[in-house]
Each structure stands twice: as C-alpha cells, then as structure tokens.
Design brief:
mainly alpha; 18 helices; three-stranded antiparallel sheet; single chain; 382 residues
C-alpha cells in the first residue's frame, strides 16, 4: 500500500485526486473520478476521511494524510466555501471518539485552527470542536491559555453574543470536568460579564451555576467579585444570594444558622454540607486574621468549633492555602499572623492602603534628603 499523498507543486484539483485515490486504496467507498467542482469533491473526501482511523495505518501516516486535507482546505475559495469545509472536517474528526487517535485528531484540528484566516466564521465552531476533543484527551491546557488570550485570538472577532456565551459555557464545563477549577471560575466570570439585566432566565441560571461552582471548589476562597456581576445582582433577596453573602463575609455560625432553615436548598444544589462547613472554618479564621496579628488557640477553637488537639493540624492546613501566613507558638498557645488575604476590600481598606502608600512615599523623601545631605557633607570635606 502506498503511503499518504505528499504534494509537490500540484494544483488543488490534482491534490484532491491524490487524496481520493489514497482513500480508495485503504478501503473507503468513493467514486474513482472526481467531480468538476472542487468544493463538492472535498466534501466527499472529508465525508470519508475517517476511513484512515479504521485501519492499521501508523499514527504518522494518519497524521500526514489528515494534514494533507488541511493543506487543500486552506484558501480553497470564498470565506463561505472554506468555512463549510472546515466545519465539515472538524465535525467529522471531533466525533471520532476512539482514544488511540485522540492525540492525532487534536493536533490536526489545532493545526487547522492556527492556519485558517482568523476572521473565518467557521473558526468559532472549529474551536468548539477542539474543546470537545481536548476535554476527552485531558489536554485542555494545550488549547486554552487563559481568558485574555482567548479574547484576543477568538472572542474579539465578529460573532454573535449567543455564540460567545455558548462557547464560554462549554469551556467552563470542560475545565471543571478536567479538574481546572480556577480557570473554570475565570471563564464563568467572563460569561456573566457578557449578560445584561435584560437577559433573563439564562443569565440567572448561569449565575446560579457560577455561585455553586465557586462554593464547591475547594481552592476558591475569594467570593466578593461575584457580587458586582449583573446576573448575580438579579438574584438578590433569594436564599442562594444569601448563601453567597455568607461565603463572601460571614462566619461558620452564620452558615450553620442558614443551613438549619435551608437544608433542602443545599441538597438540591448538590453541595456537600460537610465540605461547606470545612471551608467556612477556614474563611472564619481568615476574617479573624484580618483584624488581629495575634490569635490565641482558644479563640480559634471557639470560633471554628473544634477541639484543642485539632487546632494545630487546622492551622497547618490554613497556612497551606497560602491565604494566611503566620507562625505558631505552641508554648504560648497562640499564632502570630504575618499576612492574610482580605475576603472583602471595603472603601475603608482602600483608604488605609492609600495612607500606607503616602507614608511610604514620605519615608522615601526623608531618606532621599538624608542621602543628599550625606553626599553634600562628604564633598565639602574633600
């Protein structure tokens, strides 16, 4: 059997004929002669291109053949013609779920995505198909470099609001499934920013999903940014919004009181009550650390409702989050706090930060004047 076609100075029609011939040689049911229309010819070839995935061909030969198809598709005609072929090709490959070929399919589609005109309408659907393949392959980080990168490379190109929301929703779900909760939260916040007060039920549904995902994520401890999002604001006066506010600035007692009256809500949201308690214990001590540089073991024990012998292991876990830093003094039964992440940043805290910067600037000015005096005196002495 001949290897996959390699094109050297062939016309597009001749390349398509080589692809057709190769597919027939590996068992695909295609007419020997091509049509006079290159678009229709490539549509037929693409419809049978997965034949290479059902043979004993090497991965290298499969990749070479699929990349040959990519080379014919690029710039084949008008934007609409190329878009139709790109979509047909990506849909055909992305739906082939056999694990052995997932890497090859991902590489081929990613090559296609990086080669087509950035303004090609089909590029949006192509990236959606790539997400599906990368999710199955657990290689999302190869095709997603953060929301800023995605905005520049894809989301800034012309598209409908509905398209963007659908893609972000798909990406959020894929990142959650692959265990990238922090990146998923970033995507969900971007999704919610695209809603307005007029977007109604879908906006509220996504807001609910965002809140639940944040609460359930063991790595998420900062909730305040969610409160300013329009879809979240629309949930005000609801029990879910009340729960969010507790995770923003409340303590363990607040959560336990809420749970007594809303057990069914926690269950319906598929939230783990014990995990919520654990997170609220950490958040409670974070709040205590904001207001005091020294915390006694007794205070911690009382506030998070643990026994005396559980305090030290609890503090080690708290320090492990890196949101609170400090040093335990076992002999004195206290912990010295060196820094903490603020759960909320009020106007008063901004004012304190402003005052600190002004104080720092004044100190630098004093040092500068002192250095000038030293230099002046030394020059006079010389």
């Amino acid at each position: 059997m001949a290897g996959p076609p390699t094109f050297i100075e062939l016309s597009r029609e001749e390349q398509a004929l080589e692809l057709r011939s190769y597919l027939r040689s590996i068992g695909a049911t295609l007419q020997e002669k091509a049509t006079d229309n290159i678009e229709e010819d490539m549509k037929e070839i693409i419809s049978k291109c997965d034949a290479c995935l059902k043979t004993d061909l090497s991965d290298a030969d499969i990749e070479s053949f699929l990349c040959s198809i990519v080379s014919v598709i690029i710039g084949i005609g008008s934007m609409d013609v190329e878009s139709n072929l790109v979509t047909a090709f990506s849909q055909k490959l992305s739906k082939f779920e056999e694990e052995r070929f997932s890497n090859t399919i991902l590489k081929t589609l990613w090559l296609l995505h990086g080669t087509v005109d950035p303004k090609l309408p089909a590029r949006f659907q192509l990236y959606s198909d790539i997400i599906d393949v990368a999710k199955r392959n657990k290689q999302l980080l190869l095709v997603y470099g953060g929301i800023d990168s995605l905005n520049k490379s894809l989301l800034s190109i012309s598209h409908s609001k509905k398209q963007k929301q659908s893609l972000l929703r798909q990406l959020h779900s894929a990142l959650i499934e692959n265990g990238h909760s922090e990146l998923a939260a970033e995507v969900m916040i971007e999704l919610l920013r695209n809603y307005t007060a007029d977007d109604g039920k879908q906006a509220k549904d996504d807001a609910k999903r965002c809140i639940v995902s944040a609460i359930a994520d063991p790595k998420t401890f900062l909730f305040e940014p969610l409160l300013s999002l329009t879809p979240v604001i629309s949930l005000q006066n609801s029990p879910l919004h009340e729960l969010l506010v507790i995770f923003v600035s409340g303590n363990l007692t607040n959560y336990l009181d809420f749970y007594k009256g809303h057990k069914d809500l926690i269950k319906s949201l598929a939230l783990d009550h014990q995990a919520n308690i654990h997170k609220m214990k950490l958040l409670t001590v974070m709040s205590l650390a904001e207001d005091s540089s020294i915390l006694t073991f007794e205070t911690i024990q009382q506030q998070v409702q643990i026994t005396a012998d559980q305090v030290e292991p609890f503090l080690l876990e708290l320090f492990g989050t890196k949101f609170v830093r400090g040093r335990m003094d076992q002999a004195a039964k206290k912990v010295n706090i060196s820094s903490t992440m603020y759960r909320t940043f009020s106007k008063q805290r901004w004012q304190m930060l402003r005052n600190s910067f002004f104080s720092w600037r004044s100190c630098l000015s004093v040092i500068e004047e002192g250095m000038k005096t030293v230099v002046s005196n030394s020059q006079t002495a010389i």
